[in-house]
Amino acid sequence: MVQVESFITGKDYRCLIIDGHMAAIAERVPAHVMGDGEHSVTELVDITNADPRRGVGHEKVLTRIRVDDAAVELVADQGYAMSDIPPKGEMVKLALTGNMSTGGISVDRTFDAHPDNVEIAEEAARVIGLDVAGIDFICPDITAPVRETGGAICEVNAAPGFRMHTHPTVGEPQFIAKPVVDLLFPPGSPARVPIVAVTGTNGKTTTSRMLAHIMKGMGRKVGMTSTDGIVIDERLLIKADASGPRSARMVLQNPRVDFAVLEVARGGILREGLGYDRNDIAVVTNIAADHLGTRGIETLQDLANVKSVVVEAVPRDGFAVLNADDDLVRAMRRRCSGTVVWFSMEPPGSRIREFIDDRCRRGARAVVLEPTDRGEMIVLKQGRRSMPLAWTHLLPSTFGGAARMNVANALAAAGAAFAAGAPLHDIRQGLRTFTTSYYLSPGRLNKAEINGCDVFVDYCHNPPGMRELGEFVERYAAQKERSVEHPVTRIGMIGAPGDRRDADIMELGTIAAQHFDVLVVREDENLRRREKGVSAELLAEGIEAAIADGARCQTVVTVLDELEATREAMNRARPGDLVVLCVDQHAKVVAELEDYTNQAGAGSRTTEWQPGDPDLDPRELSDQAALQSAQDEEDLRKVLEDQEP
Hints:
Blueprint (H helix, E strand, L loop, with lengths): L10 E8 L2 E9 L2 E3 L6 H9 L4 E2 L6 E2 L5 H9 L13 E3 L11 E4 L6 H14 L3 E8 L6 H4 L2 E6 L5 H4 L10 H8 L10 E5 L4 H14 L4 E5 L2 E4 L2 E5 L5 H8 L6 E5 L2 H7 L8 E4 L15 H8 L1 H4 L6 E5 L3 H4 L8 E5 L7 H10 L4 E8 L2 E8 L2 E7 L12 H16 L4 H10 L12 E5 L2 E6 L4 H22 L5 E5 L7 H12 L4 E4 L12 H15 L6 E4 L3 H11 L5 E5 L3 H15 L4 E2 L11 H14 L1 H8 L5
Parallel strand pairs: 4-5, 10-14, 10-15, 11-14, 15-16, 16-17, 17-18, 22-26, 23-24, 23-26, 24-25
Antiparallel strand pairs: 1-2, 1-8, 2-7, 3-6, 8-9, 11-12, 12-13, 18-19, 19-20, 21-22, 21-27
């Protein structure tokens, strides 16, 4: 086969086309030396390479000239040896092409090119379909139309270099960064990933998951941080406590993310701040006694001051979704530069509802509960408009309305989604399809039925959380007793983090004793600088004090190991009982429950996870987490620094 091509002579020009328009033109001159009548070709090359602008490869604006066999042969073709001294003013080429990477130089010709040549280059880029293209012209003179002087396009580059334009050897530099940035982020269009920051004492993780679920249903690629890890588009990338600024930066740097939901914890704020400059939406669930007595946080007001940082980071066009039922959270409205969206569990006519209704009459937004003949309705209010959203008892995460903490979390998530511009039907669909299954919300009120017992797995670990969990136990047990027509025995397993105050740990036990008949006391795997058994002793002391005062609890057992404590609680359960396991390592506990179920027989239970399902099987999730921890130990260690001490 014989291929015949046109032979084009002339100079080498590079036309840079960005978004269909000419941005810069450079004349590329091949690597060469100019004779001075005194030095040999080799010496001239050394003198040229001594220019401080020249370096190896692309480290500097110019590249050093390489003398290889091809260069020696080219010099010979011009009638010289490397040791010869060319006459003064004689140009000796050392490369055939004008590429900067082979030692060539550039001369800016942006404002010299003829309009016809510019139009041809722009049309070539459009025909091929490139947003950024380097059009290589060979022609005698770029200032004259190639249709008259002759010439041609010899190459179109999809990834053209910029340094010949930004740092020409001769001529003015062209600032081509602006058209590139304008192409990527057109003027007037949003150039930031929307950020929703969720903080508070309890409910942060569930609220974050609800909001992420709503936005995922709208087709958004959601990046989420929480105490369970970093999740990108519903895929767990790192399993760790990732509620700090470093984790936030990892999410925001991920190119797939177009919507960020970031759980923000007290510890990360105190160490490094937020990890970003501002958040479009801030959500504050509540302020309650937890982590007091550490890092200078002694009072609830101190804690509120730290949590309010996310509200202060709201810009004028942003939103703060605040819990109006919490006095400390309600006061944060004074720190918000943007618009406040209220949410409240209080009934109409109450002091808080009058506060909200008064502001809604002046155009404010709110998410509230309205009683109806069919039950409580979640209602979005904007000004004088009221928009029904969903009945609380029909949301799977509320267990028929018994889980009041998830009703509050749903209000907060709905308010944040509404502020983010989500349509009502998408918010409604998200709340209706969000469940507390282990797949969607691991470690947060996960339910399974094992041997006729209702078993819940939850992360509850502080007195305010136990108070809410206890209220759920009362409501759920009452529902169950109406259906089975006999008293339900309530069995609980509890533990407390070792870095809490003695009084807080005892209070946790005291509250639990009000709602459970049997309590199994355990300890976390990480004792957090306490001696083994001390936290459990404090919990048991609080329980026994409550028993002496006539609390519901009659039996307390201490089993320090979490898995052994799980077995103890399950062995005490009988068909019809209610078991609540407050866990530290939820994957291990759920895996243990699955093994416990398998031993009891496949026909005797129904669970929300199915054995062998790689997406849902907690045993495999636990194994994968352990494998990841072994393989990425160093990365996880860095992320674990984000967790609250």
